[in-house]
Amino acid sequence: MIIQTKYAQIKNNELYIDDVRVSDLVKQYGTPLYVMSEGHLRDKLEELQDFMNQYEKSLPLFASKSFSCLAMYKLIKEYNIGIDCVSAGEMSIALKAGVDPDKIYFHGNNKLPEEINYALNNNVYHFVADNFYELDLLERIASKLNKKVFITLRVVPEIKAGANEKIQTGMKDTKFGFPSSEGIYLKAIQQVLESSSLVYEGLHAHIGSQVFDLNAYKEEMYKFMKFADEIYQTFHIVTSKINAGGGYGIAYTKKDKPLKFEVITEAIMSIIYSHYDQRGWTHPSVMIEPGRYVTGNAGITLYTIGSIKEIPGMKTYVAVDGGMTDHIRTALYNAKYEGIIANKASEKKNKIVTIAGKCCESGDILIRDIKIPDSVESGDLFAIFSTGAYHYTMSSNYNQLPKPAIVFTYKGQSRLVVRRQTFDDLIALDIE
Ligand code: LLP
Q1: How many other C-beta atoms can be found within 10 angstroms of the C-beta atom of residue 39?
Q2: Ligand 1 centroid to residue 27 C-alpha, Å
Q3: What percent of the residues of the chain are helix, what percent strand, and what percent coil, each to the nearest 5?
């Protein structure tokens, strides 16, 4: 069993997060409950900030799709780093939290006209442009509003990386970005250069998520350097911004061996800087966009165990009071997790069980074949680790289960940052 954050500890047979006993959290806030260690989040944000500060003009962007709520955007604002937003919805929360619009980068493969209007009217003018339709829309809307839009082009590097095919985004066959084959991306740059409202700044790629292979990042950067040369040869301009995307993997289980953040980022920086130095070009502004790296291991979901069902000669299902509604990644990606009974945290683990949710789906399984203590009983608390990324943001109300509350823990204290949904919330949009 591993706990992937130093902020979670076991003392007297009980699990603690940021020195708060989880059974106390459950008494106060109920289950299911998303707990985010603010200590862990702050460490990661500080690391991003400190590391990237070494490189002039560089900026880490937090991929906010991994975990977006007001409290998180406020933390990002506090650390003064940038944000990757993929919809006007994400942007609206970031802006509400007071994030500087100049630090917001608008991504997405099908930005809607109303989203573009929303962004420009709110002074968000850094766009990671994805396709020709978007360039046309941007040109039209920006010139009407008399605004300038700064363009980073998402270009497909044709690289295979990422934990499974649903989260691989850098291959030739992808819905994201301008193809690099047959010089298509050069035509896009030409269109930007010919526009009076669009300003070409640079290149972006995101090759995939849960990337454990350093070579994938290196290959991506070598491709980008080749593109930067082609752009220089064709248009005589130096690409002034390189955004290497996110994808930094984390450990969910003991089997996962992620690369160190600085190993990936140093490799990215050194390929870019040495290429630019060789050509006598001014160093570009470099960006990275980690999401899961910041939030993943900060999260722990707490559940109450209900039914325990033994199928003789087969398996034991231990069911909890949440499920695929608050934890979709096992069903969707066959993702693996570790967990413990939080109130029996140091007891010997001899019994192999499957942790199931309460949704009306056979696939509603959270962890398969995990060892827990024989003493497991209804009413125990089950904690699943590393649930900070793509859990709350991918949650749903299937079976009309209310979404859990979110609590931040820090230095022995807890604070509610998102309240639990009520039954009234479930019909808040219904018209009677
Ligand atoms: N930048 C771009 C353009 C992205 O599309 C993403 C993730 C990121 C950065 C951040 O990736 P990260 O560092 O978190 O791996 N729902 C999936 C992951 C999909 C990610 C989508 N884009 C999951 O639960 O694993």
Answers
A1: 20
A2: 34
A3: 35, 25, 40
Element (H, E) at 267: helix 261-278
> What is the helix (H) or strand (E) element at residue 303, kind and residue range?
strand 299-311
Distance of alpha carbon 298 from the chain centroid: 12
d(CA 110, CA 108): 6
CA of 167 to the centre of ligand 1 (A): 7
Quote the pTM value. 0.96
Residue of 126, 176, 209 to mutate, ligand 1, most atoms within 8 A of C-beta: 209
Which of helix, strand or coil describes residue 242?
A: strand
Q: Which atom of ligand 1 is nearest to the CA of 390?
A: 24
Structure tokens at 357: 């949710």
What is the CA(307)–ligand 1 centre distance, in A? Answer: 35
228-241 pLDDT, tens per residue? 999 999 999 999 99
* CB of residue 66 inside a 6 A radius of ligand 1: yes
Quick: pLDDT tens for 246-298: 999 999 999 999 999 999 999 999 999 999 999 999 999 999 999 999 999 99
Distance CA 169, CA 146 (A): 34
CA distances from 28 to 13, 22, 32, 90, 93 (A): 20, 10, 12, 29, 27
Please name the residue whose Cα sits nearest to atom 9 of ligand 1: 246
Say whether 360 is catalytic: yes
Identify the three-state secondary structure at position 376. coil
| pLDDT, average across residues 187-197 | 97
pLDDT for 169 beyond 80 = no
What is the C-alpha end-to-end distance of the chain, expressed in Å?
50
Peptide bond preceding 312 in cis form (omega within 30 of 0): no
207 within 8 A of 217, measured Cβ to Cβ: yes
Q: What is d(CA 358, CA 401) in angstroms, rounded to the nearest whole number?
A: 9
Alpha carbon of 397 to those of 202, 318, 372, 400, 427: distances in Å?
40, 22, 29, 5, 11
The string over 15-27, giving b where at least 16 C-beta atoms fall within 10 Å of a residue's C-beta and e elsewhere, is bbbbebbbeebbe
**Residues making up the chain, counted from first to last:** 432
Please work out whether the CB of residue 247 comes within 6 Å of at least one atom of ligand 1: yes
Helix or strand (DSSP H, E) at 200: strand 198-204
